[in-house]
Amino acid sequence: MEGALVSAATGALKPVVKKLFALLGDEYKRFKEVRDQIRFLASELTTMHAFLLKMSEEEEGGHDPLDKEWMKEVRELSYDVEESIDDFMLHVDDKDAKPDGFIDKIKHSLGKLGKMKTRRRIGKEIEDLKKQIIEVGDRNARYKTGGIISKMSNLTIDHRALAIFEHASKLVGIAEPKADIIKMLTEDEDCGSAPQHPKVVSIVGFGGIGKTTLANQVYQELKAQFQCSAFISVSRTPDMMIILRTILSEISNQRYVDTEAGSIQHLISKVHDILTDKRYFIVVDDIWNVAAWEIIKYAFPMMSGGSKIIITSRVKDVAHSCCSSFSGCVYNIRPLDMVHSRQLFHRRLFKSGEDFPSHLKDVSDEILKKCDGLPLAIIAISGLLANRENTKHEWDQVKVSIGCALERNPSVERMMKIISLSYFDLPAHLKTCLLYLSIFPEDDIIRKKGLIRKWIVEGFIYNEGGYTLYELGEKCFNELVNRSLIEAVKTDDGVVKSCRVHDTVLDFIISKSNEENFVTLVSVPNTTIGTQSKVRRLSLQGDKGGNLCEPENLVLYHVRSLHVFGHSVDIPSLKRFRHLRVLDFRDCDQLKNHHIEDIGSLLQLRYLDLSGTGITELPRGIGDLWFLEILDLRHTIISELPASIVNLEKLVHLLVDRALEFPDGIAKMQALERYVNVHVSRQSTKFLQELGQLKNLKKLHLEFKGVSGTTDGNGVAEEDVKAIVSSLQNLRAISIGGNNSFWTEACLLPTSLQKLSVFGTIPRFPDSVSSLVRLRSLFLWMERVGEEDFYILGGLPDLLKLLLRIRKCEDSRNTRVIVGGAHGFSGLRLFSYSILDDEMDLMFAAGSMPKLEVFETVFDAVKTESLTGGDFNFGIENLTCLTTIKCTAVHCRTIKTGDTTKVATERAKAATERAKAAMERKVRTHPNHPSLSFIHGTYWR
Predict the structure, then answer these.
(1) pLDDT, tens only, 257-286
(2) Among the listed residues 703, 649, 650, 653, the one whose alpha carbon sits nearest the alpha carbon of residue 673
(3) With the C-alpha atoms ordered 368, 370, 372, 373, is the resulting torsion angle positive or negative?
């Protein structure tokens, strides 16, 4: 994986410089005729990279047109240079290796004859690149004005400040959140207690969602109740002297000019002295980083009971950090619902809702959907529509072209300024990661793992000591969520699995990507965003409404990333994409085998996603993709892999969801970290032995269906399989399906395991689990579980997630199993315990599972009522950190009809209702008042 950073601001300059210096190494010494030119290129491009990086940190409007045009030229040139170097390295792949033996020497000599022309061509290309770089530099010098253009035109009103002057009568949807904030600020006083410290409430949310407006409405209502009050805006690049002088002026009703400033320490002391022994109310609006708060907070006395502080921020970590300094809590501001969105929209365009034309109702709702409840977006788009005729045709045009309109209509400048503040606060690599999301269609659910892997193979993630590239990519993903620029969609045990991009943010990043020729978007009805002839990243977005073809004027030879979404897309020939690194056909059901016949020509390909397509087999040419790192074949009907697959020696992830027949030779694929669904009975003995040689393998699924006795159908002994698994000492996750009885024996699972899943009922607890001290997640199907098993499980120090599925045998005793503090479980966060056709037999005693947050259970209501004496008491009051309970009461039925079944059904329904009522009582009396989800289901057998 690339260690050098590719970015939207600097293009491929950094990896190009790295590769140029590599060409100066001893392994390429035979190219001495171009070494001086290579040194020149490296030196010039290093300087250009530093200049572009500095320029990219300036906010919108900070560049004159000549600078922006020069930046574009250098970026485009960097990609061209990298393509030439990559071609060069492919042609001279053998470098200066000396042949051994007579035959090898003859072959080497013949090969050198063929490469002489290549070397001459490479030399000419490098000379041409040198001329281009000189020309680009000279042209910038010729026309540069030396900064004589006035910067006064860049001065603009801070539109966030205007929010505090908005009259309450013009606001919508403000009453409920305003009441929530006031309640949070005053709840201690309402209880009759006297707070010892100021109460802090942090309002957090995306830019334009109404944080400032909400804070100001609360401020205006409450400030008269306090002896001192102040409302200050911090901004992205705060001047702490000005901020502290502003606080001082507002709380003292005196004006402090610059000459009276003193030091920051002096101002903090002065503010602190004035506020001491007084009840104060301070709003600190739009704070971006913890460092600013760490200075401001010292101005506020800690022992001022009854005082209030409101913080607003779009960064979640900042909001939480501000609260931790005092007694505080975080309020996540919600977007407007559709009713309030319509109300605001109609009020901005017409006098009242009654005046709204009925023929525009549907299209207006579609436009409001794009605004997604953001007040500032609704105001901006209503301003755009105010200058249009009130016809459905005009409004439809605005709906379709909102993203394009953002670039040129002054009505939406305010909204874009708000988003651009968040964008320009990002470091260069995060800007690039965010812009890459412009590839995805509106409202697309973007899988986190796939996104991070694409960032990595594109070269957006840089190396940092002590972390893997994926971990660094995950940090980038979390930072974008933290800054409210992307929205977490699905969570599994608190871990975000996917995200979506807010429509308004998507329009902004599409506009920026177009401006920097970062992504070219082609969508139905054949609209193209991005007009440059050289396309670097192409997104084809089709639907069922029309056939999508890429415009003829697009040059596809330079495309580095191709994504195809939706239906009715004409699949372009892969021969046209020589420099492709990412190819994503996910869920493109019209993709057939003939479309990927030439896949072997994509020699730079790193990422290939064929999941959910109509592909039935891979071509032999797949083995020519020497640089391929990720291959996704999930949700296809491919049944076997070609023999050439083992040539993919850099492949890290082979993603499949069904057992494929794999050829012998997997031992060559030493980079492989993830390969799931190995069906033991379908593979050769040699393959299984080679599987044990993959020292970097981290994730594996073994299917034993049809395997029993001492050997399988291919003569593979069970003991041999155990030996193979135990040899994979870097394995992090393993799942096992089929006949699992022998896993209760002393199978030496590697101690590196963090996740173990065993599908298929096992008679007793596996002896080997107690040694898995790094285990974080465990899933087991068992015939029974006793207190002795909970002692073993509770002793696993890192266990966070435990899922037990119990299928009791007929002779099992119906007794309670007590789980108490002595069993351990010191870090467990989620516990799921399911008995589909029997009673819930667990009882939690005092001290049980001290950090458990989520408890899930499935049980037979009738049998559980009998075992518990009718009170359905599981001891959940002893689970002190519980936040969520998910209960499913099932009724076990056999496939028959008659009065007996009807009676049993009515009995089960009554027992289920009593179980639900009992659980609701337990939740009401629990100190945490955890949320309860109660479902009634039927289990057939």
Answers:
(1) 554 556 888 889 999 999 998 899 999 998
(2) 653
(3) negative
Residue whose token pair is 């929209």: 345
Per-residue confidence at 2, pLDDT binned at 50, 70, 90? very low
Contact 719, 696 (CB under 8 A): no
Query: Cβ(766)–Cβ(744) under 8 Å?
Result: yes
Q: Give the phi and the psi of residue 721 in degrees, each rounded to 5.
A: -65, -40
pLDDT for the residue numbered 218: 92
Helix ranges restricted to H, 57-101: 65-91
Mean pLDDT of the chain: 79
The two structure tokens encoding residue 749: 């699972």
Q: Report d(CA 679, CA 704) in Å as an integer.
A: 6
How confident is the model over 740-757, as a mean pLDDT? 73
Q: What CATH number does the domain located at 426-516 have? A: 1.10.10.10
Q: How far apart are CA 190 and CA 195, in angstroms?
A: 11
537 has pLDDT over 70: yes
Work out the widest C-alpha separation in the chain, in whole angstroms. 97
Q: Name the phi and psi angles at 286, rounded to 5.
A: 60, 55
3-state SS assignment for residue 264: helix
Confidence band for 408, pLDDT divided at 50, 70 and 90: low
Quick one: tokens of 442?
A: 């509106």
pLDDT in tens, 547-557: 666 666 677 88
- Strands 498-500 and 487-488, by their bridges, are antiparallel
Closest by CA to 2, choosing from 11, 13, 12, 15, is 15
HEC profile of 156-216: CCCHHHHHHHCCHHHCCCCHHHHHHHHHHHHHHHHCCCCCCCCEEEEEECCCCCCHHHHHH
Q: How far apart are CA 787 and CA 386, in angstroms?
A: 71
Task: List beta partners, residue 931.
Answer: 884
Contacts of 401 (CB under 8 A, 6+ apart): 527
DSSP letter for each residue of 705-760: TT--SSB-TTS-BHHHHHHHHHH-TT--EEEEEE--GGGGS-----TT-SEEEEEE
Residues 6+ apart with CB under 8 A from 586: 450, 609, 610, 611, 612, 613, 632
How big is the chain by its Cα radius of gyration, in Å? 32
Which numeric CATH code is attached to 519-643+650-655? 3.80.10.10
C-alpha span between 771 and 577 (Å, rounded): 51
* Exposure letters 539-577 (e unless 16+ CB within 10 A, then b): bbbbeeeeebebeeebebebbbbbbbbbbebeebebebb
* Residue, of 70 and 678, whose pLDDT is higher: 678
**397 or 541, which is more confident?**
541
Instruction: Please name the amino acid found at residue 357.
Output: P
- The closest of 285, 288, 291, 292 to 316, measured between CA atoms, is 288
Beta strands in 19-118 (DSSP E): none
Q: Is 96 exposed, middle or buried (0-12, 13-18, 19+ CB in 10 A)?
A: exposed
Question: How many Å apart are CA 715 and CA 685, to the nearest integer?
Answer: 7
Q: What does the pLDDT read at residue 448?
A: 94
For residue 69, the one-letter residue type is E
Residue 507, token pair as written in the block: 């329009």
- Range 159-332 classified under CATH 3.30.365.10: no
Task: Supply the DSSP symbol for 853.
Answer: -
Which tokens belong to 397? 């045009």
Architecture of domain 659-782: Alpha-Beta Horseshoe (3.80)
- Alpha-carbon gap, residue 453 to 469, rounded angstroms: 9
Closest CA to 633 of 609, 663, 597: 609
The residue-averaged pLDDT of 506-527 equals 81
Tokens standing for 743? 């896993």
